[in-house]
Design brief:
Shape: elongated
Number of helices: 5
Strand content: 25-35%
Structural class: alpha/beta
Order of helices and strands: HHHHEEEEEEEEH
Distance between the termini: 84 Å
Helix content: 25-40%
Radius of gyration: 20 Å
Number of strands: 8
Largest sheet: 8 strands, parallel
Length: 218
């Protein structure tokens, strides 16, 4: 009985990428955009390639010109993909009377976020956030105040289950968003808001931010 012929070792660049591989590269790109290393247009273009990538060879060039990835991009990519992800909390409960709650910059998103607010405001900025899985639940109970959610390309927000007693829901997240970027993460907002508002929008474009700074200092 003859033994099967051993397969030749494959080039690591030809190894197939998983959904988790693509998500981790997308997270690195969002952090780079948040640091100002990529414009929003470049971020959108690279996210499109990342989510459509089939192999590590497709993913490696997306990080090649970013600090920490430029030297030996494939090796660094493999190290990043092999790293164990930080496990998010299942539930985080937040209760405030007045004041504000801000989640922005680099933060670990829990699987479910419960917000109990009396006045004040809440900011949830997912631009540089690390998410687990494909869904985040946000359960809100607010009396007055506002809830603002900022989502980059590849995110979608479903606020259809929010019961509004006065106030409004405004979703601008799809404004100027590329049509061919697939949705990789959904944020489901549910609960009750009395006399408040929900504002969902994309990250502010760098050019617009510079113009605003120029006007404020002129």
């Amino acid at each position: 009985m003859s033994l099967p012929t051993p397969m030749e070792p494959r080039d690591p660049k030809e190894m197939r990428a998983s959904h988790e591989d693509r998500d981790r590269v997308a997270d690195a790109l969002r952090v780079a955009a948040g640091d100002g290393r990529l414009t929003m247009e470049e971020l959108e273009e690279r996210l499109e390639v990342a989510f459509a990538a089939r192999t590590y060879a497709d993913l490696a060039p997306l990080l090649g010109d970013l600090p920490g990835y430029g030297s030996g991009a494939l090796a660094t990519l493999n190290q990043a993909l092999a790293a164990q992800p930080v496990q998010p909390k299942d539930v985080v409960h937040v209760k405030r009377v007045g004041g504000s709650v801000r989640y922005e910059g680099v933060w670990i998103v829990p699987k479910r976020l419960d917000l109990d607010m009396r006045g004040g405001s809440v900011l949830l900025d997912f631009t540089r956030a690390t998410v687990a899985g494909t869904t985040t639940e946000v359960n809100v109970r607010m009396r007055g105040g506002s809830l603002r959610i900022i989502v980059p390309p590849g995110y979608a927000v479903d606020a259809n289950e929010v019961s509004m007693l006065g106030g409004s829901v405004r979703d601008r997240s799809a404004k100027n968003a590329p049509l061919d970027v697939p949705i990789g993460h959904q944020i489901i907002v549910a609960g009750e808001i009395a006399g408040g508002s929900v504002d969902i929008r994309p990250p502010r474009r760098p050019g617009r931010l510079r113009r605003m700074i120029g006007r404020s200092t002129g």
